[in-house]
UniProtKB/TrEMBL annotation, chain A:
Keywords: Cell membrane, Membrane, Transmembrane, Transmembrane helix. It is found in: Cell membrane. It comes from Azospirillum melinis. This is Branched-chain amino acid ABC transporter permease. The chain crosses the membrane at residues 31-50, 57-79, 99-121, 128-144, 179-198, 229-249, 261-290, 317-334. CDD domains: TM_PBP1_LivM_like. InterPro entries: ABC_transp_permease (IPR001851), LivM-like (IPR043428). It is a multi-pass membrane protein.
Automatic annotation (TrEMBL), chain B:
It comes from Azospirillum melinis. Pfam families: BPD_transp_2. The chain crosses the membrane at residues 7-28, 61-83, 95-118, 139-159, 190-213, 225-249, 269-287. It is found in: Cell membrane. This is Branched-chain amino acid ABC transporter permease.
Amino acid sequence: MASVSIIPSGDYKTSYGSDTTIFPTKTSRNFAILGVVLLLACPAFMDRYWLSLLIQIGYLGIAALGLNILVGFTGQISIGHSAFFGFGAFASAWLSNSLGVPVALAIPLAGVVTTLVGLLFGMPAARLKGLYLAIATLAAQYILQDFFARADWFTGGTAGTIAEPLTIFGFAFDTDERFFYVALVALVVMYILATNLMRTRDGRALVAVRDHYLSAEIMGINLTKYRTMSFGISAFYAGIGGALYAHYLQFVSVEGFTILFSIQFLGMIIIGGLGSIMGTLMGTAFMVFLPEAMQALTKLVSGTALDTALNLKDNIAFLREMSIGLVIILFLVFEPDGLAHRWKQIKAYWKLYPFSH
Amino acid sequence: MTLLFQLLVNGLIVGALYGVVAMSFVLIYKASRIVNFAQGEFLLIGAWTCWWLLTHWQLPFWIGFPITLAFMLAFGVILQIVVLRPMIGEPIISVIMVTIGLSIVFQAAMKWMFGVFAKPFPQIFASPTVNLFGLEVQTVYVMSLLISILIMAGFGWFFKYSRVGLAMRATAFDQQVAQSLGISVRHMFAMSWAISAMVSAVAGVTVGVVNGVSSALSFFGIKVFPAVILGGLDSVIGAVVGGLIVGVLENLAHYLDSQWLNWGNMYEIAPFYVLIAILMIKPYGLFGTKDIERV
């Protein structure tokens, strides 16, 4: 995986081939396969609450990965990711409702449509970078949000739109237990695609654009092409994630895709680690569990003096909002490389135990 | 026709306020190269503080307002020292995200403390409207225009003649050179945040008096982006001009919309279309310095 700022000691590579494998060691590959197998068994013993959280991690993780390809790997900032996520959700619902496209086909098609929209807004991205791009995507967020509220034919206006459940050969994935497998398969496929992208010439070009775009240009990398491309890829991932979200909840409302949601996506990749694919998943899980943790915390202190003084029960929404902002700030100040970096250090520590350092 | 004229006057008044907020945004950007996404929350905090002093403690305006300013000064300095100073030298995404994080935290905290509904300021002026050139204009609007002009003139004087202002400009121009001339760059950074927070609070109180205080105030911080991009990110004059243009423009868009187009909500969204257009054509704005990058 790219963007290893500091390679921990004990990490020896002797060929370029071994540097670009999907899994660094056989053990890690086996563990990943074991993890997926364990997840496959999850619906058998988990209740619906935990399953719904895991499904959330699934579709949000896919969208967050798209953002990480854009921000973490290409170094282009986007504050409008939730708008693309929303566009994917509406596009998929619209394709299956109005054009009669089967849902299984509508989800990837929604990804493609969102890619086109992403490329449209990515055109300024080809010319801009850093701060200017951040502001341009902020504008895109508001413009798309306004479009959702206004385009009745597409989004159903304020009433929202209903999305059909995913059905393959007459088998409807309409319960949490069933949809869990859809989310899992989509997640695994999308993550393997992204990992492979980063092993190709295009992936390395994206990283080069991030690290030093002038040098990259001198080496013959077409800046415009790769900046626009990474915007397109990110929109594609957001679209797929959004489409899964739509067909999981079977209802999409226009209010959900606010700037706060966009910031949550950014929070996921910052907490997980910019430019780390596994980190994206960790960050997403963190962000999904954070509000639940806040809820649990509130329950824990309920009835005490603290609870009555702050009136926690009625203000839980604000507490959640604040915790998102606080976690982002704390991570940036104390652990800017995210959970992925911390995880790597822990692994390195045990690898060399008891002779670390 | 009267409607158009009224809208233009409104646009100028609101635009002047945008200009003031944009100026305080540019001040931070110029001094410390930090893009402050929490600028709108400065307005919000200032307005709520003043409101709280005026209603909860029943202070008269002329005592409550200076206390608010003093509080915002301390707030700006502390914020800079505690949160922003560790971010010096970090990549731009981290800095942007920290200010975004701050904006979320402040917004949620303000909603928590003061509720989500707009609350009106106590009456400050005896007569609610005055007659200006045959137009009925609210007194607070006139006051806000006067305050805006006063702040702008103050900024002009500050940066042109005062010692601190000159030191700040030197810091903005080149930090190392400024440091070698005995200017404390740390003080300048803290000062720029303090001034920015104070000026934003003035704008926040003004808007609060007009519309009532609510979390909608923080949207000013977002509306500032079209203004500063139009004027050029590092130009104080550009910020004022950009603010005025955006203020007039959104009212014009509203007029066009209500008369002919009926698309709805153009008042809110038109500046963002303009923003994208400017970024495509002239990213460094009307008065901004064009970055020339050398390898």
